[in-house]
Amino acid sequence: MMMIKELDQIVLKTDLPEHGLQQGDIGTVVLVHQGGAGYEVEFVALDGETVAVVSLAASQVRPIAHLEIAHVRAIEHQAA
């Protein structure tokens, strides 16, 4: 399996309704915890607004695979 490192884009494997995130959302790794045991991941809307920064276990994310395509969906606005 490919090693995930800082600034890699990842795919969320689980829904996180408390953050408005769904399985399949794409985020960017901003910090790797304990050699890949977990990650701090930033999820950003297409207009550049940060939706969430979340600490996730390695089991909750995966690398983007060959020939995957992004899909657009609207999220509910969340109060800061």
Order of neighbouring strands in the sheet with most strands: 4-3-2-1-5
Characterize the largest beta sheet: strand count, sense, and whether it forms a barrel. Answer: 5 strands, antiparallel
Mean pLDDT: 93
Contiguous runs where pLDDT drops below 50 for at least 5 residues: none
Helices and strands, in order, run as EEEEE
How would you classify the helix and strand content by structural class?
mainly beta
- Anisotropy-based shape: globular
Q: CATH top level of the domain at 9-63?
A: Mainly Beta
Report Rg. Answer: 12 Å
**Approximately what portion of the residues adopt beta-strand conformation?**
35-45%
Assign a percent range to the helix content.
under 10%
> Total strand count, please?
5
* CATH topology type of the domain at 9-63: SH3 type barrels
CA-CA gap between termini? 36 Å
The gist of it:
With 80 residues, the chain is mainly β. It has strands at residues 9-12, 26-33, 38-44, 50-57, 61-63. The mean pLDDT is 93.
Q: Care to describe what's here?
A:
The protein is mainly beta and 80 residues long. It has a domain at 9-63: SH3 type barrels. The chain is 0% helix and 38% strand. The protein has no helices and five strands. It has a five-stranded antiparallel sheet with strand order 4-3-2-1-5, with no helix packed on it. A hairpin with a 5-residue loop joins strand 3 and strand 4.
